[in-house]
Amino acid sequence: MSTSPFTFSFDDRAVPAEDGQSVAAALIASGIRSWRVTRVEGRPRGVFCGIGVCFDCLVTINGSPNQRACVIEAHPGDVVRTQEGAGRADLAC
Amino acid sequence: MPISPAEPGPAAVHDIVVLGAGPAGLATAVAAAARGARVALVDAGPRPGGQYWRHRAGDDGAAHHDWDRFRRLRDGLDAHRDLLDHRSGHTVWHVERTGAGFTVHTLHAGRPYEIRGRTVVVATGAYDRQVPFPGWTTPGVFTAGAVQALLKGQGVVAGRRIAVAGTGPFLLPVAAGLAEAGAEVVGVFEAGRPLAFGRHPFTVVRNAAKLAEGAGYLRTLARHRIPYRTRTTVVAAHGTDSVTGVTVARLDAGWRTLPGSARTLDCDTVAVGYGFTPQTELAVQLGCAMERDGDGSLVARVDSRQRSSVDGVYAAGEACGVGGARLSLIEGELAGLHAAWATTGARPDRRRLARLLRRRAAQRSFAAALHRAYPVPGGWRTWLEEDTVVCRCEEVDVAAVRRAVTELGATDPRTVKLCARPGMGLCQGRVCGYATAGLVAEADGREVTADDLRGMAGRPIAQPLPLGVLAAGADGAGNEA
Q: What is the pTM assigned to this prediction?
C-alpha cells in the first residue's frame, strides 16, 4: 500500500496523513472525532455513514465549506477548519 | 475535447450508461463491452469497486473478499478500453429521458457534465439502514458501514472499545475485522434472533459457502472472547462531545425493551446498522415502478432481463433488492448482456443466460431467507425519547414528527417532511427516510407502504450541488468532456 506520510493542518494543529487517505480517516486516526457544529443546536458532528451519503462530516477545507471529509482525500498542506453551522447557504438539493 | 450539448454528435452517445461501479455496475459494464456495446461507466468514487471493494490506490486486496473477482473485472475494464469509458469521480445529480435515449447529468471536480446513452443501467448499490435512538448523533456513533470503510478503505480503526449493534449478517465481518485489527469489541448485539435458516433447507444447501463464511466470523469472535448476544441491542449512547458508553437492553420479538434488562457498558465507539437501504432516487427519477421488498426497502421492479418498467432502463444489484455482492454480480452480468443485445443486436449465449437465471434464483431465495431471518419490527420506536433526533441534518426530533401527524393533520411522510422538515437537509432523507416513514405510519395508526417510502426517496436533484452549476447549465457551460 502506498503510504507516503505528510501533514495537513486542522484548526492550526498538524495532523499526519497517508497518501490517498480521506480527511476524515486522518482526523479519526489522530483521535479527532468532530469537526462541525450544527446549525440549530450547536452540537458537534463528525463521521456517521463514512461513504458520502449522510453529509454529517461536512468541514471547511482550504476555505471551501461543506466538503465531505469522508470522501475527500487529504493533501499535503491542506488547511482544514471546523465548520460552524451551514458554512455557506448556496447548495441546492 | 468538449462537445456542446446542443451538437451532441454520434460519438458522444453511448449504447449503455451504467450508473455505479460496484459489483453490479462493474459486471454490467464488462459484460456489455465484451459483447461490443459502447459503455460509459459513471461512478462517484475515485476508483472502481463501490463500497464492497472500496480500497486505496495500491491496495493489494488482502483485507477484501473476492478480490480475485474484482481484479478480473478491473482487468476487463482495461481490456475493453476502446469501448468502455470509465468516468470516475462523477457524481450523478439527475437523469432524464432526452429524445430516444437518456442524459445523465454529473458533477466532476466542481464542473457539470452531460453523458448520453441509448439505455441506462441503475446499479447504485445501498448504504446502512438506521433507526434512531437516544444519543445516536454523538460523535463516536458510526454506521457499521462507516467503520468497515474506515478499516478496509483507509486502514483506520474507528475506536478502542467498540460496541457493534443492530441486525443482520453484516455485523459479523465488521466485528471480526475490528477484533483482528486490535480493537476491543465489547460485544456484538444482534437485535434479532436469526433462526429462519433451519426452516429453508434447500436455500441453506445452495448457499453453503456463504454460511461457512458466517461461521468463520463467529469463530473469530469466539477466539477473541467477544460476546455475541441476540435479541439485544444498543438502545442509547451516552456522552456529550464523544461517546463514553451505551445502554444495552434485551428485546422481545417485536423489539420492545424487556423491563429491567437495561445495563450500561463503557465504550468509546458504536458501530450500528439495521440492514441496508438501496439507493433508489435515480430509479424513482426515471419513473421506474417500485415495490416494497421483503426487508421493507423500496426497490425497483425488474424482469428476467433486469429491465425496469421504463423502456430502456435496467436495474441491477441492491437497487432491485438487497442481496449482497454475489447476487449483484449475477444481475449485473444479466443486465449487461441484455442491454448489449438490445442496443447492438449481439445475441447472448442461451446457456449462459439460463445459468445466470438459475444462480439469480438461488441467490434471491437466499436473500429472501435473510430478510425473513433479520426483520426490523417496529418496537425500535419504543426506545425513543420525545427529544431524540430523527433527522440528523435538520435536527428534527421525534416530538416534531409526531406533532405533524397528530396536530397538523399530516398522514404521509412527504407531508410531514413539508410540515416539520425531516428529510429536508443535505442527505435528503436518505438516513431518516425509513425511520420517518415508520414514525408517521405509527402515529397515523397503520403500516408503512411503498408510497410512504417513495415519498421520502423522490429527489429531483439527487445530490446537493452549487447553485452556480444549475445557472451555468442554462447557457451550456460545462459540457461533455
A: 0.92
